[in-house]
Fold this protein.
Amino acid sequence: MEYKKTDLTKKPVQKVENIQNPAFAFEKINYILMIVGVVVITLGFTIMAMEDAQHGFGFLGLTLGPIVTFVGFMFEIFAILYKKKK
């Protein structure tokens, strides 16, 4: 059985036009959700800073503040991945 040698350099080159609409990666709702996430993160850090206990070892500094901050970061991930159903 003989194999044909194919010359890869002689194939016709097809011109592919890559026309895309210059659109934003996110929609308006994504930016609104991201702003809400930043506000929640800032609120969490503010709660941690409000702690009156020595070195911030109270309920606000060790429990509530980090939980609110974590929820804010998770909300940011949701805001980035959210896509409106069409």
